[in-house]
Amino acid sequence: MVDAPLPDPALVVLVGPSGAGKSTWAAARFRAQEIVASDDLRAVVGSGPSDLGASADAFELLDRIVAARTGRGLTTVVDTLGMEPERRRRHLGLARARGLPAVAVVFETPLALVRHRNRIRDRPVPAGVLAGQVRRLVDAAAQLRSEGWDQVRVVAPESAASPPPRPRSAPSSRSHDFGVILQVSRFPWGEEPLAWLTDIARATDEAGLQGIALMDHLIQIPQAGRAWEPLPELWVTLGVLAGLGTRLRLGPLVSPVTFRPAGITAKAAATLDAITGGGTFLGIGAGWWAREHAAYGLPFPSPKERLDGLESAIETIRALWAAGTKPYAGQRVSLPETTGYPRPAGAVPIVVGGTGARSLRVAARLGDGCNVPSDDATLERAIPLLRAECDAIGRPHEDVAVTVLDVPVVGRDRDDAWARVERLRGRAPAGTFAARHHAGPVSDHRDRYARLFERGVSSVFLALPDLSTPEDVLALEPLGSS
Ligand code: CTP
Ligand code: MG
């Protein structure tokens, strides 16, 4: 059986006798700075890790470090014997005060193995002391259950050294229509726009990702960069990508209906689909950013009018994509003819972006999918709402795909992920930023996506907050399908 991943950030308190493998376990899973070890602090304030005379100073420091890190919402691993109930409770209280999940990890390493490891150490713990620790562990394990930890994990001896095996997503979760699409939301192309776009697209293809989605804005949005950074026009840029002859699916995520008349969007998407031989998707939404509308001289009506506009747009687009040229008289839109050539090569899914109740209703009634942020709270709310809207009109749930926008910090390893958090977080506290962006190595994201797919998500649109070079994209290969 594979352990569920540990919460992150979290307070993690290790409990086990000397030689149980606590430090080894922690080092395989956490950055050195995240681990607060009494042995290390004895070596800092005393003559070495076994300088027992330095224990009082070391533990005073340890408590201060735990308070400081948990106070900042940072992952903190307490590597001591963990057998003093008072200290455990203090640390637990600090985590509680900050809303950090608290996990106790108990090392049930058999006495014989602990003794053996102890004997071959530089400075063995006296045999009687060790036996006492093993006895106290039994009491500690019992007390832990009633102390109020969010999780009590038991590490069995055979898994004490190596990290738990990562679940590979089942092959079935990789089949047919779902996968990972790179959403490009920043364009640090220097002096070479075309070369940069080409390299990023080829890397996306090589990494086995399903496609590229482009954000549609007129000014770079504050979430993705600074206003003076380049932000190319959507359909021109998709046209460039279409010309590269990759197998990537292409489309906007999300295009506001306030930017272009719906017929023009229908024409652009049909053209893209025709010249690439299919695979286009169309993400559309009501638009949200007043500033870019004002700057470009575009009307920015009330939310209600924009959402009405979204409904009319979808009707218009579908009418123009449909076979034939006959007049169209729909619920909201009438057109004297629907002559639109080229037709899309295949079925172009319309994905409605937005988390509001009305956006979800529009998706359920008129869309082929909805796109929402990937966080748990949103999914817990949006998926049932979408399904209820489907039920209300008798539409099968599987007709409306759930897709998510995920903005992960992906590092080569935990250290690199953390370095990226420090670069990206701006004024946000590091712990908050790291949690929001699930900062971690790509294997963590693969597991997380496998869970999203299990939950009914069919595609993940992945936007790298620090996308810069093709190597950043190639590093996503474990998320690809090939
Ligand atoms: N070890 C091992 N196999 C494991 C875990 C540990 O061979 N699965 C070895 C380590 O290499 C080390 C010794 O056992 O030489 C003790 O492991 P360590 O992780 O240091 O144990 P701790 O529980 O941290 O011990 P202490 O409380 O003394 O720090
Ligand atoms: Mg240790």
From TrEMBL:
Residues 192-437 form the Luciferase-like domain. The keyword Oxidoreductase applies. The keyword Oxidoreductase applies. InterPro entries: Luciferase-like_dom (IPR011251), Luciferase-like_sf (IPR036661), P-loop_NTPase (IPR027417), SsuD_RutA_monooxygenase (IPR050172). SUPFAM superfamilies: Bacterial luciferase-like, P-loop containing nucleoside triphosphate hydrolases. Keywords: Flavoprotein, FMN, Monooxygenase, Oxidoreductase. This is Luciferase-like domain-containing protein. It comes from Terrabacter terrae.
